[in-house]
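Input sequence (259 aa), recorded before submission:
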Amino acid sequence: MGTGDEVVEIESLERSLLPESVIGEEEREADDEPVLYTASFGEMEEGFVKYQTAQWVLYSLALILAWGIGLFMLLYIPVRRYILRKDIRSRKLYLTPNSIVYKVTRPVPIPCFGVLKKEKHVLLPSVADVIIEQGYLQSLFGVYSLRIENVGVRRPPSDDVQIQGIANPSAFRKAVLTHLSNMRTEVLFHRVSASEDTPDLRIRSQAAWLSPARSLKHDAIPHSGDLALLHKLEEVGSSVKRVQTLIEEQHSQTSEPTD
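Predicted structure, token format:
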């Protein structure tokens, strides 16, 4: 079938479409936040392009009987591979102290009409997990998919941020989860320390609000122990008075017969 000649022809067309200075198009933007970890895509360029091309060919063969659409898709393969190479070479995925940033610039389906720029920022507090996936066709080319799962209301996986072609996805996942765990531990520590300092602050605030006159008035009020002592003294005094009245009555009764 001349498959070798077709592959050579596709490669030559692809190389002719690619400019020589594609790799030198990296634009480092001056972000305020420091970059903690940067993912890489360069090592997976060939595997990613081959995987996407194989997927495209399978779709084309399935549609080749549908009014010749599959044939046009097969003829579009060189342009498709050019777009894929531009896509994966422009990808940037990195971790900052507060978010995960993903940037990509890829040509439109007809490259002469410009490019599409895409930028996503996923805040770390909203990240529930980082999932690594690999389908059967991806495993043939060593390609992995990275999916960032959000917290809160459950949504379908299609709504999550999905990135293909990342090299060493386990290292990126470990970096994200480790930093996220440190953030949550630090927040919990601050909450515990704040709750421990709250009673001391309340006592100090109450002491600061007490004026000198108010403090003297407060000191003039007897405590509960002093009130109990005064009450007992009153009871003793009343009992002594009763004893005195009884003694006086007895004296009066004894004095009457003698008279």
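Checked by second reader. The longest helix spans residues 169-209.
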